[in-house]
Please model this.
Amino acid sequence: MLAYQHAYHAGNFADVHKHLVLFAVQRNLLRKESQITYIDTHAGRGYYPLQGIETQKLKEYQTGVLPLWQAFPPSTFQQGGTLVDEWVGELRRAQGGDGSRLTHYPGSPWWLASMLRPQDRLTLFELHPGEHRHLDAQTLPSRARRLHEDGLKGLRRLLPVATPRLCVLIDPSYERKEEYAEVAETLEFVARKARHAVVLVWYPLLPAGRHQNLLDAVRQAGLRKLWRSELRMHAPDGEHGMYGSGMLLFNPPWGLDRQIEDAMGRVTTCLGAETSHQGQWWVGE
Ligand code: SAM
Model:
């Protein structure tokens, strides 16, 4: 089943949460010179015009990236400012031109590629043929290779990597409920093959609560140093509908928990009165 297309949801609150956490991790990793391999198991198209037909259907960016964009105009931008200032600054850069209008939303391939140094490598997996064609059409550095393959199997195949450091983003669509268990098994595999890898796993907060199976499985598998960040837009409401976004981080860089708590405090202020964030060690060291 490959029905999901991220263009319908580009720039929504979950994207803001996921890409802000990803950006924070990258910023921390870049403090050291040593080479990094980045792997994005579910890449999507990489770059989304907000006026595109799919994105205009649901207009989810209007309750995600747009309020943040409006709350941080260029006049307030300071280099070396807060994480959210820096993130919105990058978002401006992603617009092209003078960056004064929000016309596009960049996906994880763009965020990862934007900070790629000459010594780093990036592998992007995308299984959907149409989405992969879009991804292939993006302008990315030559060190960013795009593979039309299953992302979790592909990740296993690439381990261990040749570089001293590894950073993985696992961001499935969870169209099949088995994906929660598959992600947990994959995280366990990565932890065995690359003990120091930094892994970011995104999961949706849905009324069925299946993300709990993923969280319980990795704890039961004995993994340590797992921190989670959850952004809730409102209380669970009815049987369907995503009410929040979760990120589980394996081996988060030191100090990241406080940086994210602070940034998400600013984000929730922009996203509305019902919005809240909770950061918590799921399993400590
Ligand atoms: N990571 C992207 C971002 O942040 O911009 C969004 C990814 S979207 C949530 C999930 C993507 O995974 C979709 O583009 C879908 O086509 C793709 N996909 C679904 N099953 C896959 C699989 N087994 N392997 C790789 N990609 C898959």
